[in-house]
Structures are given as C-alpha cells and as structure tokens.
Design goal:
- The chain is of the alpha+beta class and 130 residues long.
- Helices cover 64% and strands 13% of the residues.
- It is built from three helices and two strands.
- The longest helix has 53 residues.
- The radius of gyration is 40 Å and the shape is elongated.
Length: 130
C-alpha cells in the first residue's frame, strides 16, 4: 500500500501549516481483493441465515407430530377414567343449554332493534347450521 503525503499551508505571509495527512493509495488489485472478500462474507452470511430458516421450517413437521402424540396420550388417559368422562359430559350439557342460548339470542335481537327488553318477541326454535 502506498501513501501520499499532503501538507496544507495557510494563505497568509507566514505560511503556517494548517494540516498534514498521509492518504493511502491502493492499487487496483488490492481494491478488487477487498471487494471480493466483502462479497464472499455477505453471501456467506445470507446463505447461513437461509439454511437456518429452512431448518426451523422443517422442524415444524416434527413438532406437529410430537404434539399430536401428546394429545392422543392425554385423550386416552381421560377416556380411561370414568370420573373424567362424567365431568366432560356435564361440561357439554352446560355448554349446549338451549334456554341459555335462547336468552342470549333474544338479547342480541333486542339490542339490534334498540329495544330495552325482549317483551315484544319470542324465540320459538333454534337450528344449528353446519
């Protein structure tokens, strides 16, 4: 690497030195070597990150299978205990209580119509859509 000296004097009659610098001058071969090294480092970083992302994405399938096995084991243990089965049946019965559902629907219709109460109408039947 070559250095070029640069000395700057003031423009008055005393010719004071304002600054002195040593500027490096690189040859074309040195510049191309640095550029090639920067390119290799940049491309290597990009490919390393892409490989890491592909490994993460491919691990999703393994995690999904592991989670399914765990859920099956939990469902099997719940199915084996009769106390748990009766608790599940009670929860399902509570969730599908038609009177409670009818009250919620009636309140929603009354709110849409701007009425304060549900005296003006009656919910006669509820049909589920698939």
């Amino acid at each position: 690497m070559l250095f070029r000296s640069e000395i700057i004097f003031s423009n008055d009659m005393f010719m004071d030195v304002e600054s002195v610098s040593m500027n490096p001058e690189s040859t074309m071969g040195e510049l191309m070597t640095k550029a090639a090294l920067n390119t290799v480092i940049g491309m290597g970083t990009v490919f390393a990150v892409l490989i890491l992302i592909s490994l993460i994405i491919s691990s999703f399938g393994v995690l999904h299978k592991f989670q399914e096995r765990k859920e099956k084991a939990a469902a099997k243990s719940v199915a084996e205990s009769p106390a748990a089965q009766s608790a599940v049946r009670e929860e399902i019965a509570d969730e599908t209580d038609d009177l409670e559902l009818a009250a919620v629907i009636a309140a929603a219709v009354a709110a849409c119509q701007g009425a304060a109460s549900t005296d003006g109408f009656v919910v006669r039947s509820i049909r589920r859509r698939a």
